[in-house]
Design a protein that fits this description.
4-stranded antiparallel β-sheet; Rossmann fold; 7-stranded mixed β-sheet; alpha/beta
Length: 271
């Protein structure tokens, strides 16, 4: 999910293979613009339909107090546009011009105020009763220091009693899908094309390395993603550093209870 990240990052994963050998898998030369380029922006909405969009909008609308609201990593407007359609003024920040261009091409997209830049800076005027970041986009920020900086700058833009909503957090329910620090998952299988999600992670550094690989008769296309994930308890500490406190935690946008088996984490922090 779109957000501002360093221009380049080079990481290596060390893992013990089945034979006991010490393996190293690099993702050299990664540039965040490749995760959210023109090709990705064009197909993004079709790839990320999850079925909980209406619940997400209803949850956020309930906290917005009439608005305005600010979305960090607003992307193609998957959530911002339907939230704006409820009558809430929604502003946004994103570093990907192609993703924002896609948003602008949709009905109502031209009416939103969007800043192109690093969402960790929260470089906007005014204050908001609701600031939110969804779909694990906070983890596109690749260092703990910058994630804390994001919390601090969000806190400075919240109205008294305002809410910062974060979707994301490492859970056992998600880790159960990862075996020996990796998995390959078929995202789509057609007669003449396949799309695979190839992922490895380093639990020592909390770095996740992923590539969405699309293979067709015309060749292959790669969409790499690098993230620094965090446990919910770490997010709570970041919030405390920023002067915020945890108000609610749910296992989904329908306010499902958060348990050890939850595969999603919705955290609501208050000023």
């Amino acid at each position: 999910m779109p957000s501002e990240m360093p221009l380049a990052v080079e990481r290596h994963i060390r893992w013990i293979g089945p034979s006991g050998a010490d393996l190293m898998w690099p993702m050299d030369g990664y540039e965040p613009v490749r995760s959210f380029d023109e090709a990705t922006a064009e197909e993004y909405d079709a790839l990320v339909v999850r079925g909980d969009e209406d619940a997400t909008v209803a949850f956020l609308d309930d906290l917005a107090q009439g608005g305005p609201a600010l979305e960090l990593a607003i992307g193609t407007g998957r959530i911002a546009l339907p939230l704006a359609a409820t009558g809430v003024r929604v502003d946004g920040i994103d570093f990907s011009e192609p993703m924002v261009a896609k948003l602008r091409s949709k009905p109502g997209g031209a009416n939103l105020t969007i800043v192109i830049g690093d969402f960790c800076d929260v470089a906007v005027d005014g204050s908001y009763p609701l600031i939110y970041v969804v779909f694990n986009s906070l983890f596109n920020v690749l260092s703990q220091d910058d994630q804390v900086r994001c919390f601090e700058n969000v806190a400075s833009r919240l109205t008294p009693g305002g809410a910062f909503v974060v979707e994301g957090g490492c859970t056992l329910g998600w880790l159960d899908r990862v075996r020996l620090g990796q998995y390959v998952e078929a995202e789509r299988i057609d007669v003449e094309a396949v799309r695979l999600d190839v992922l490895r992670l380093d639990p020592a550094t909390q770095m996740l390395y992923e590539n969405h690989v699309q293979v067709t008769r015309n060749g292959a296309r790669f969409t790499p993603v690098v993230q620094r994930y965090a446990w919910p308890s770490e997010l709570d500490l970041m919030a405390r550093i920023a002067g915020l406190h945890l108000d609610q935690r749910w296992g989904g946008w329908n306010r499902e209870p958060f348990t050890a088996r939850s595969e999603n984490v919705i955290s609501v922090y208050r000023a």
